[in-house]
Please model this.
Amino acid sequence: MRHKNHKYRLNMERTQRHTIIAGLAADFIGHGKLKTTITKCKALRIFVEKLITISKTDTVANRRLVYSKINSKAAVSALFTNIGPKVATRNGGYTRIVRIAEPRVGDAAKMAYLSLVD
Model:
């Protein structure tokens, strides 16, 4: 049975999907906002919210755990110095998805913004 095993597959293999999500997460953490397709936003929200929850307690073990997932020193330091302390009292729901009315020009894919909730 496949209960609770839903994944956003994004029409790619597992390694490619993990690499794209990790790269998008590093960009999102660095900028605080990201414009991409709705499906990638939904997949990225799950990944990023878990990282933000880990970053609420600043320990060496947590920094190493987050670094092993996104592989970007700048993003890890931004996550633990800027984002983690800001949401320390919040119990989840760190991000929001805002849909954009106009589709992407090349293939008419539905687009959205993923941003941090302040």
Q: What stands out?
A: The first strand starts at residue 33 and ends at 37. The first helix runs from residue 14 to 31.
